[in-house]
Amino acid sequence: MHGDHTVVEEMLDWRPTDYFTVGITLPIPGAPRIVMTRAVLDGPNGMTHLELRVAKPKPKDREFVDGAAAKYTERMTKAIAGLRSMLEGEQPALDAVEEPTLTRSGGRFLTEPVKSGERG
């Protein structure tokens, strides 16, 4: 999104495939920065467990963060339910879209390997 609805997420820490932590700035005047970690954990029977952790806010920001968390939870719950129904085949799959025909390169790219020391 752009303009008044832009949410800025600043990457603070990450360990690829394990977790990442972001500082979230919402497009609301005076909104506190929210720090959230999203972790991917091994679950039982080969399943994956997604864990969302929100840093404890300052006491003055607690009410705002709790309200934002409630809205986020509502949206995520709805999105996960939609994903689950697609995976379980309850929603029809989207029709496949035919890929457009690619045009032939205008000679901008190499068509065969170049040996070391040669110049094209």
Describe it:
Helices cover 22% and strands 26% of the residues. It is extended. It has 120 residues and is of the alpha+beta class. A four-stranded antiparallel β-sheet has the order 1-2-3-4, with no helix packed on it. The protein has a domain of 61 residues. The chain contains one helix and four strands, in the order E-E-E-E-H. The model has no long low-confidence stretch (mean pLDDT 84).
Q: In this structure, how is the largest beta sheet organized? A: 4 strands, antiparallel
Q: Which H/E pattern describes the elements?
A: EEEEH
Looking across the biggest beta sheet, what order are the strands in? 1-2-3-4
Strand content: 25-35%
Query: Which word captures the global form?
Result: extended
Please work out how many helical segments DSSP would assign.
Answer: 1
Instruction: Return residue spans where pLDDT drops below 50 for at least 5 consecutive residues.
Output: none
Q: How many individual β-strands?
A: 4
Give the termini separation. 43 Å
Average predicted local confidence, pLDDT: 84
Structural class: alpha+beta
The share of residues in helices is 10-25%
Output the radius of gyration: 23 Å
What's the layout of helices and strands?
Blueprint: E1 8-15, E2 19-25, E3 34-42, E4 48-54, H1 62-87
Antiparallel strand pairs: 1-2, 2-3, 3-4
Briefly say what this structure is.
The protein has 120 residues and is an alpha+beta fold.
Which terms summarize this structure?
alpha+beta; 4-stranded antiparallel sheet; 1 helix
